[in-house]
């Protein structure tokens, strides 16, 4: 009887663990299982070392200020976090205002569709997704508009994930992804009918550099929309709490430095854009974008337990716990940034590349 009881107990524990990890899954359903967590393109034996290297950037702040260092810094970050983002958040690595009666995923899709509606592209036209991640917005936008989307991301692992998702969604003929730096894009001048970036240009050391590249590849008369991460008019640099919140967001999201909302339009005009519209989409009557972070607190703790179990068992690479804990802490900084009103991840700017002057 003792051996039978032992077998039954072990079976219950194994079944419970399987249900907790594989059936209960993450905060939302999105196609990445906890048992498949990895370090992206990093060898699993090197995940912990790369995590430590990521944090070493912040011990040498002058290194972050060097533009040539930033791409590798951002690439390392996304190797570390991409699987965790997909598992715990979804295929769209950005925020959106909460919409009454809509799920988080539905609200996210509406937020993405608005971007392509703003640039007014037609079916069959080609548009650019600057900083596409694993392509969640790309697929929503392509399906909604009928346009062809070309995305660019610095991270090779994200390219492979995006291509796999595109094929699974039946959108691989409409969506393409290339690996590259959006500060030096491998596209010809005036080759796109429109462009957008959703919470991506915050990774650029100089906003002027990425805006000028997007300006270069756009056809004259085309529109570009960006959702920017910025500090708002409520931010006070002399307030230690404000500084702590913003620095926490920067450290946890691979940002070389958050910009002020007042810098965005000025930069766009500097590279030649006409500013059509500018608005903080997070301001009332929009519902709080950070409510998703607060409401997901139980899910985060559940996921953290799963990560600890998987790393302990050797299923997830060593260092996964540290990465997940970093993101958990960052969620608190983001929430504080939203609650105090000093930070917004969706300062929208809509720009037009001027038509070429007519020849006499």
UniProtKB/TrEMBL annotation:
GO molecular function, one term: 24-methylenesterol C-methyltransferase activity
Pathway assigned in UniProt: Steroid biosynthesis; sterol biosynthesis
Keywords: Lipid biosynthesis, Lipid metabolism, Methyltransferase, S-adenosyl-L-methionine, Steroid biosynthesis, Steroid metabolism, Sterol biosynthesis, Sterol metabolism, Transferase
Domain called SAM-dependent methyltransferase Erg6/SMT-type: residue spans: 77-354
Pfam families xref list: Methyltransf_11, Sterol_MT_C
One annotated GO biological process: methylation
PROSITE patterns listed in its UniProt record: SAM_MT_ERG6_SMT
Keyword Lipid biosynthesis in annotation: yes
EC id: 2.1.1.-
Family label: Belongs to the class I-like SAM-binding methyltransferase superfamily. Erg6/SMT family.
Described function: Catalyzes the methyl transfer from S-adenosyl-methionine to the methylene group of 24-methylene lophenol to form 24-ethylidene lophenol.
Name by which UniProt lists this protein: Methyltransferase
């Amino acid at each position: 009887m003792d051996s039978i009881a032992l077998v039954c107990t072990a079976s219950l524990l194994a079944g419970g663990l399987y249900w907790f990890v594989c059936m209960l899954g993450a905060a939302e359903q999105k196609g990445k299982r906890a048992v498949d967590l990895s370090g992206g393109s990093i060898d699993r034996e090197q995940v912990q070392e790369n995590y430590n290297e990521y944090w070493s950037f912040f011990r040498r702040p002058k290194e972050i200020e060097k533009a040539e260092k930033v791409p590798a810094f951002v690439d390392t970050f996304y190797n570390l976090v991409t699987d965790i983002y997909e598992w715990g958040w979804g295929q769209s690595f950005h925020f959106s205002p909460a919409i009454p009666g809509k799920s988080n995923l539905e609200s996210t899709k509406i937020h993405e569709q608005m971007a392509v509606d703003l640039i007014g592209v037609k079916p069959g036209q080609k548009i650019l997704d600057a900083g596409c991640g694993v392509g969640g917005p790309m697929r929503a936008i392509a399906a909604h508009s009928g346009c062809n989307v070309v995305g660019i991301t610095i991270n090779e692992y994200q390219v492979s994930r995006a291509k796999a998702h595109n094929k699974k969604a039946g959108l691989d003929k409409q969506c393409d992804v290339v690996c590259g730096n959006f500060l030096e894009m491998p596209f010809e001048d005036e080759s796109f009918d429109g462009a957008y970036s959703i919470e991506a240009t915050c990774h650029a050391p100089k906003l002027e550099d990425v805006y000028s590249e997007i300006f270069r590849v756009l056809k004259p008369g085309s529109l570009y929309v960006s959702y920017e991460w910025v500090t708002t008019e409520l931010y006070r640099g002399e307030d230690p709490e404000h500084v702590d919140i913003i620095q926490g967001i920067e450290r946890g999201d691979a940002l070389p430095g958050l910009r002020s909302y007042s810098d965005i339009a000025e930069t766009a005009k500097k590279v030649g854009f006409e500013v059509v519209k500018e608005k903080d989409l997070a301001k009332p009557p929009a519902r709080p974008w950070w409510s998703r972070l607060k409401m997901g607190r139980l899910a985060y703790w559940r996921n953290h337990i799963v990560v600890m179990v998987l790393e302990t068992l050797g299923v997830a690479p060593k260092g996964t716990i540290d990465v997940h804990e970093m993101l958990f802490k960052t969620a608190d900084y983001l929430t504080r940034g939203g609650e105090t009103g000093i930070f917004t991840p969706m300062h929208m700017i809509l720009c037009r590349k001027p038509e070429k002057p007519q020849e006499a």
